[in-house]
Specification:
The protein is an all-alpha fold. It has four helices and no strands. It starts with a helix and ends with a helix.
Length: about 90
């Protein structure tokens, strides 16, 4: 019915966005593609294995992609967590 057509429309638009982001080397497209594949792994594991391998490869090659606003924000958060974790470990010693 309508739900299936709507799902296909949303998925198609998401994959067009991923293709465009990969073409212009933007890192947000890797995370969007990863989210789509993660959902696919839950819905149909056997069909999502090959795209999952591709996502893993692309994430290992992420230095070739331009970081976006969310990447810069997440790096700040991860660095803060890492700093606090290291300070806690130093206090224990």
């Amino acid at each position: 019915g309508f739900g299936l057509h709507f799902y296909r429309l949303i998925t198609g638009l998401a994959f067009l966005a991923v293709a465009y982001g990969l073409y212009i080397h933007q890192r947000w497209s890797l995370w969007l593609y990863g989210a789509i594949v993660l959902i696919g792994l839950f819905l149909n594991f056997s069909l999502a294995v090959i795209p999952a391998v591709l996502v893993i490869f692309l994430i290992t090659q992420r230095k070739f992609f331009t970081p976006g606003v969310l990447d810069k924000y997440s790096e700040k958060i991860f660095n803060k967590i890492k700093f606090e974790y290291e300070s806690i470990i130093k206090k224990d010693k």
